[in-house]
Amino acid sequence: MKVKLYTDGAARGNPEGPGGYGAVLQYVDKNGTLHEKELSQGYVKTTNNRMELMAAIAGLEALNRPCEVELYSDSRYLVDAFNQHWIDSWIRQDWKRPKSGPVKNVDLWKRLLEAAKPHEIRFYWVKGHDGHPENERCDRLATSAADGNERIIDEGLQ
């Protein structure tokens, strides 16, 4: 099955800091019917990069069978980690801190790789706040994530 996964870390909505994160799974079933599943998280005190990773994890972990996934994110950090093979380099270095700087979010990256294993995934970066339809989708998630309160990832990863 082919699935589009839209993710966003929302830095708006919470007057005291970052908001939350959200993911929407969109797919068409064998009868041609479009389905959407929205996952959102309430206020989280963490960085935008971590929220982007948690959104991707939430979406991938919600899939109950192997899929062809197109993952759309306005996080260059998330998309470039895969498309430019940064993550491969971190694994080869056994997730150690390189001399040039820290490897960020190691536990989240490991969980994302585990969630990604059964799927064929293509990562797409969509420029933020430019009116592009795929990015509007991500931006809509930001509000949903900031307003939501369903806990979909365990507190230990925050």
Automatic annotation (TrEMBL):
Q: Where is the RNase H type-1 domain?
A: 1-147
Can you state which reaction this protein catalyses? Endonucleolytic cleavage to 5'-phosphomonoester
GO biological process per UniProt: DNA replication, removal of RNA primer
In this record, what's one Pfam family? RNase_H
What keywords appear on the UniProt entry? Answer: Cytoplasm, Endonuclease, Hydrolase, Magnesium, Metal-binding, Nuclease
Enzyme Commission number(s) of this protein: 3.1.26.4
What cofactor does this one take?
Answer: Mg(2+)
According to its UniProt record, where is this protein mainly located?
cytoplasm
Q: Which domain of life is it from?
A: Bacteria
What is the free-text note on the cofactor?
A: Binds 1 Mg(2+) ion per subunit. May bind a second metal ion at a regulatory site, or after substrate binding.
Q: Which GO molecular function entries does the Swiss-Prot or TrEMBL record give?
A: magnesium ion binding; nucleic acid binding; RNA-DNA hybrid ribonuclease activity
Binding positions for Mg(2+) 2? 8, 139
Give, as one word, the top-level EC class.
hydrolase
Compartment annotation: Cytoplasm
Q: Which residues bind Mg(2+) 1?
A: 8, 52, 74
Secreted as a keyword?
no
Q: Which GO terms describe its cellular component?
A: cytoplasm
HAMAP family documented for this protein: RNase_H
Quote the subunit structure annotation.
Answer: Monomer.
Q: Which family does it belong to?
A: Belongs to the RNase H family.
Which PANTHER family does the record associate with it?
A: RIBONUCLEASE H1 (PTHR10642:SF26)
Its function? Endonuclease that specifically degrades the RNA of RNA-DNA hybrids.
Q: What is this protein called?
A: Ribonuclease H
Origin species: Candidatus Copromonas faecavium (nom. illeg.)
